[in-house]
Design a protein that fits this description.
- By secondary structure, the protein is mainly alpha-helical.
- The chain is built from seven helices and no strands.
- It is elongated, with a radius of gyration of 23 Å.
- The protein starts with 8 loop residues before the first helix and ends with a helix.
Length: 177
């Protein structure tokens, strides 16, 4: 059995961040260029640039905007080298696409974290949330169905929301989002 040297922590961190960001980076690049093989080539260039400049990455900030900035530069370089191919988007439009992909990714991450957190709360709390948001009941109607006061339902919902907010923030920190 061949023993492999341990992978340095920075390389592990980059690999994990890249695995999460890569589909979103490819989506941006594929939107910005017309041919798939060009998008794949640019994606490889982005990965190489991210790896070579990872020492400059500030781990306290989200990875996706950082790597999308690299992708943005690579797309601009691609069009500069491809003078014969018309530029589809201006630099400002490409920046709008970067911003869109960052926001879209953030929303996906938040939805996934919320779904994870709702799964962690007890059944009674989940049922109250369902009554409020799925059934669109107000607190008075919920109180009547549960033989509670409207005030206690409001307080309970407030506590559940606070618990979910804390959980979602924790999940997002875990994921580096």
């Amino acid at each position: 059995m061949v023993a492999h040297p341990p992978i340095p922590e920075k390389q592990q961190q980059l690999a994990q961040l890249w695995m999460h960001a890569q589909p979103k980076v490819f989506s941006f690049v594929a939107t910005a260029v017309t041919r798939r093989h060009d998008a794949e080539d640019i994606l490889q260039q982005v990965a190489l640039e991210a790896a070579s400049s990872f020492e400059n990455y500030d781990a306290s900030r989200p990875f996706l905007p950082w790597v999308l900035t690299i992708a943005h530069r690579m797309v601009i370089r691609f069009y500069e080298r491809q003078k014969r191919q018309p530029v589809i988007f201006s630099e400002s439009t490409l920046q709008v696409l970067v911003d869109y992909h960052v926001e879209s990714s953030r929303a996906e991450d938040e939805r996934a974290a919320l779904q994870e957190c709702v799964g962690k709360i007890d059944e009674k709390s989940r049922r109250l949330l369902s009554m409020r948001y799925d059934d669109d009941l107000n607190t008075s109607d919920m109180a009547n169905q549960r033989a509670l006061t409207a005030g206690s339902v409001r307080v309970t919902l407030s506590r559940i929301r606070k618990q979910l907010i804390d959980c979602v923030r924790g999940e997002l920190r875990k994921e580096g989002a």
